[in-house]
Amino acid sequence: MELKHIGHIEKATRKSAQESLRMGIGFAFLLGILFYAETFGIGGAEGLMLAIAAMIGGYMAMNIGANDVANNVGPAVGSHAITMGGALFIAAVFEAAGALIAGGEVVVTIKSGIIDPALVPDRETFVWIMMSALLAGALWLNIATAVGAPVSTTHSIVGAVIGAGLAAVGMEIVNWGKISDIVLSWIVSPLLGGVFAAALLYLIKRRITYQEDMLGAAVRNVPLLVALMAAVFTSYIIQKGLDKLWHVSVGVSLLYGLGVGLGAFFLLRPLYRRRMAQAENCRESVDRLFIAPLIFSAALLSFAHGANDVANAVGPLAAITQSLTQAADVLAAREASIPLWVMVIGAIGIALGLALFGPRLIRTVGSEITELDRMRAYCIAMSAAFTVIVASQFGLPVSSTHIAVGGVFGVGFLREYLEANYERMKDEIRAYHSEDDLATVNAFLERFQSAPLAQKGVMLADLKLKAKLKQDPANFSKPERKGLKKIYRRELVKRSQLKKIIAAWVITVPASALLAVGAFHALRGLLG
User: Residues 171, 174, 175, 179: is their CA dihedral positive or negative?
Assistant: First the structure.
């Protein structure tokens, strides 16, 4: 056997061993939950159901960490603003902190009014519905993570609740009007995220990177951009991260955001001016200014995500716990108190799932859809926060996962358009010169590339005028003239990723619903 074959075998063995270790740690966490839940001493069939439900809740939390958190830190990792290890540490800490500090004391037992609790015949059926929904949602997230597709956790659990409700009662239990909202969010979320991210990136290009004096433009504009991020994220955290602890109106949160943004502007402007005085007049110097804002945005997005999406993992588990341990009628109350131990399972599960299985999706979002630099990653982070704030005020159903991934596609397609447009202008320049005048063409293209955007338009207009006046006639061969008609187009967004992610989004609700139907019958058959 050759040495290179031995090397391949050793590499495959190491990878298999690492995968086995990750799965072993995850399995040990679930076993720990099982033993811990049994200490409550309920006994009998109800005690066994609670222990199994706690395991399923921990499994759901791990899959949320493995799949959903990638949207918060993926762009920062892909742009090299932070390492994978640093991103995992920051996200794990802030996800857990958001879940434990601001996760809330009560959750709605049946997600978003998708099914009518009045039609659930008894408390035992309610427990089977919640357990089946948790298991099916977790299984679908696991499948999506395995194939590298970032999907919506909320859509997964909603589809699972629908499927479990159908299996338990029938078609009449489902609030089909809500389904239209879910379908609407498939379209609204990525479109809004992509449009906002692309618009912000285009603004940065016009105001900074298309300017001849990029350093001067950066000194004027980057403090404003970072202050805008501080303002938006302050409002975002107050509304989405701290709303269960500190509930204020939208206007008040915007005022707080404005105050923080102004403070950030006056603090950062002199710092950026001193820093840019020593830098080179190039794009890389400007790009480095966005490292710190991206790190902060990753932390804050993770905190808000932990505060909100922990309910997808522990909400049904809290309802099951209340149903099995208390006399309260959870079907009538529609809300369930969250015991501390349930919140701890959710927090640890999300952090552990991220650390063990999150890197794959982080790489997908950060580098496998389109190439990201720090300015593009900044636009995606801003879009994620700003879109959620705007959509929530208009009552639009949006998914944070779809928004973030839509933002990645948005900046990628903008780059494709701008590059194709630039190549079109270069073709026009070549068309107005003689084919043997290569030196003149290259000199003009060099001046054209370094000129500000407004000056580019003047140069093109002047060139067309000269051609019209026969001062600089074109003399290209027929094949070359045909070539000039073709618009240069490089695909800067991977179409295979686009198709895979869209397909995963579309089938999330029906797939998790079908899994829930199977889970309902399987669990009730085994434990009922």
Answer: negative
Whether residues 18 and 142 share a domain: the answer is no
Is there a domain that residue 279 lies in? yes
Report pLDDT digits (tens) over 314-333.
778 877 887 777 655 555 55
Beta strands in 101-164 (DSSP E): 106-108
- Predicted pLDDT of residue 463: 63
Pair of tokens at residue 306:
């932990």
Of 66 and 438, more confident:
66
What is the extent of the structural domain holding 161? 44-416+493-527
Domain assignment of residue 469, yes or no: no
User: Given the structure tokens 């794990």, which residue do they identify?
Assistant: 92
Contact indicator for 110, 161 with CB cutoff of 8 Å = yes
Is residue 95 a contact partner of residue 354, using CB atoms and an 8 Å limit? yes
Best CA proximity match to 305, nearest among 99, 452, 129, 121? 99
C-alpha distance from residue 441 to each of 420, 438, 464 (Å): 19, 5, 14
pLDDT in tens, 293-320: 999 999 988 988 888 777 777 778 877 8
**Tokens matching residue 428:** 């026009």
Cα separation, 505 vs 402, in Å, equals 8
Of 240, 383, 393, 230, which Cα lies nearest the Cα of 302? 240
CA angle 273, 279, 285 (to 5 degrees): 95
pTM of the model: 0.82
Residue type, 342: V
Residue 445 burial by Cβ neighbours in a 10 Å radius (0-12, 13-18, 19+)? middle
Cβ pair 389, 462 in contact under 8 A: no
336 strand-pairing partners: 107
Number of domains in the chain: 2
Q: Provide the residue type at 73 as one letter.
A: V
| Domain-located, residue 31 | yes
Domain match, 27 and 112 both: no
Nearest to 107 by CA among 315, 292, 307: 315
Q: Which of 120, 116, 127, 117 is nearest to 326 (CA)?
A: 127
Q: Answer yes or no: do 9 and 151 share one domain.
A: no
Residue 486 maps to a domain: no
Exposed, middle or buried: residue 395 (CB in 10 Å: 0-12, 13-18, 19+)?
exposed
Q: For residues 76 and 116, state if they share a domain.
A: yes
Q: Which long-range contacts (CB under 8 A, 24 or more apart) does 35-42 make?
A: 36/341, 40/325, 42/324, 42/325
Q: Are residues 20 and 72 in the same domain?
A: no
CA 325 – CA 451 distance, rounded (Å): 72
Contacts of residue 477, defined as CB under 8 A and 6 or more positions apart, other chains included, come to 435
Cα dist from 46 to 33, 49, 108, 452, whole Å: 16, 5, 22, 71
My answer on whether 67 and 119 are in the same domain is yes
**Are 291 and 403 in the same domain?**
yes
Please tell me the distance from the alpha carbon of residue 77 to that of residue 295, in angstroms, as a whole number: 9
Same domain, 51 and 17: no
> Which residue has tokens 């999706």?
361
